[in-house]
Amino acid sequence: MQKTLIVIGGGAAGFFCAINAAKLNPTLRVIIIEKTNKLLSKLKISGGGRCNVTHHCLDIGELIKNYPRGYNFLKKALHWFSVKDTIAWFEQRGIALKTEKDGRMFPVSNNSQTIIDCFLQEAHKYNVEIITSCEIIAFQKENNLFHLTTHSNQHFKCNFLCIATGGYAKSLQFQWLEKIGHSIEKPLPSLFTFNMPQHTITQLMGVSVDEVQIKITHSKLQTKGALLITHWGISGPAVLKLSAFAAKELANKNYNYTIVINWLTQYTEQTLRDEWLHFRQQFASSKIFSKNPFALPNRLWQYLLQQSNINEEIRWADVSSSQQNKLIKNLTAMEFEIKGKTTFKEEFVTCGGIKLNEVDVNTMQSKIIPQLFFVGEVLDIDGITGGFNFQNAWTTAFIAANAIGKSEALSLSS
Question: Are residues 81 and 203 in the same domain?
Fold first, then answer.
């Protein structure tokens, strides 16, 4: 009798598991069940429609530093399927990837449809069945078979079941998995921007700075990177990275907290104070508004001067001590009250999910229910923006596919 694998979830991890399992074992019937009428939707919009497939960080020890949660688990998993393996997998199917300056990797076509078409072609090639607009709301295991029930009271049976539903935003959405005995790490938003309602700096929307340092006050949480000023607050890689690493702490603060921004990462408040006399002497006769020695965007420089009570006509030599002190503070330790968050574009990511101590890292199989597998963001693993969450999807999905495709259970009743 033919064995069946059902994958719940038609996203990146679900497809990758299904097509690799089907390729590894042609005798296996593989079915993807997706609750919406769209397949690979997150993959399609990733990277502004270009699909940020992975990140060019080939050293596993360095790579896992980009995962706020699940890094120890993923460190072991990556030995089974690494970034190198991801690159090779796509190249074997005629898809070359290119690396951008920041390490993000995209298909050379610059079009996510290239990746989608590849997955759909692989699914067709290996006879993967796809069912859409079908939501699984419960399942149980009896006599070595999983019995699945849909929202419309349809029923499916399978020998192997892979959960690839992605991250859930609310704990309630995990209840159907808790009912079968698994524990959940409470889901919380990750990768979000910082809101500053009605703050004057939002008048500079569109201004970006290549590198700043952001700290959350009364904590050790800080990061460096590019920053973008928006009409609602601040965004950019530095903000998103900090939001990911501070996800739990910021949720506990109800997203109301204070940050300190150093616009000049080459200086601390003290080292800039030590060098200030040099700048005053060098640019003494120049108007400070028009002479910016720090390569900051002009609009930001003038804004910081205005916030330091320095008017347009003042020359460097005429800046008072109180103005100077305020400007140094604003340049290196400017405080902002954050009130709320906004999900970053398409990069909806949650931390939390299936607790990793209940999953075998070498197979992605449940330690509680044999032949049940978890892959992708449904696990308590999340990365920062830049291709890291997709790499988690490829790695965990391939490991599960490999374990299912080579399972002894396939041959027991064949």
Answer: no
pLDDT tens digit string along 90-144?
999 999 999 999 999 999 999 999 999 999 999 999 999 999 999 999 999 999 9
Domain at 183, CATH number: 3.50.50.60
- Report the pLDDT value the prediction gives residue 410, as an integer from 0 to 100: 61
Mark whether 267 and 145 lie in a shared domain: no
Region of 225 on the Ramachandran plot (φ > 0 left; ψ -120 to 50 alpha; else beta) = left
Do 225 and 332 have their domain in common? yes
User: Any bridge partners for residue 32, and if so which?
Assistant: 7, 130
122-152 in b/e burial notation, b at 16+ Cβ within 10 A?
Answer: bbeebebebeeebebeebeeeeeebebbbee
Range of the domain at 302: 192-343
Distances (CA, A) of 379 to 139, 195, 264, 315, 382: 18, 28, 38, 58, 8
223: enclosing H helix or E strand? strand 222-229
Final residue in a domain of this structure, among 318, 343, 368: 343
Same domain, 308 and 177: no
204 and 301 in contact (C-beta within 8 Å)? no
Q: What pLDDT, on a 0 to 100 scale, did the predictor assign at position 273?
A: 96
User: Based on the domain organization, do 85 and 199 belong to the same domain?
Assistant: no
Q: Are residues 176 and 268 in the same domain?
A: no
b/e map of 393-408 (b: 16 or more CB within 10 Å)?
bbbbbbbbbbbbbebe
pLDDT tens per residue, range 3-36 = 999 999 999 999 999 999 999 999 999 999 999 9
Q: Which amino acid is at 185?
A: E
Do 293 and 378 reside in the same domain of the chain? no
Q: Extract the tokens encoding 75.
A: 């460190």
| 392 has a pLDDT exceeding 80 | yes
Distance CA 5, CA 16 (A): 13
pLDDT for res 342: 87
178 & 264 share domain: no
Reference 54, options 95, 97, 20; nearest CA is 97
Predicted pLDDT of residue 345 = 55
As beta bridge partners, residue 214 has 223, 261
281-301 mean pLDDT: 95
Helix, strand, coil share (%) of the chain residues, nearest 5: 35, 25, 35
Here the tokens at position 371 are 């032949």
Six-digit token pair at 7?
């994958």
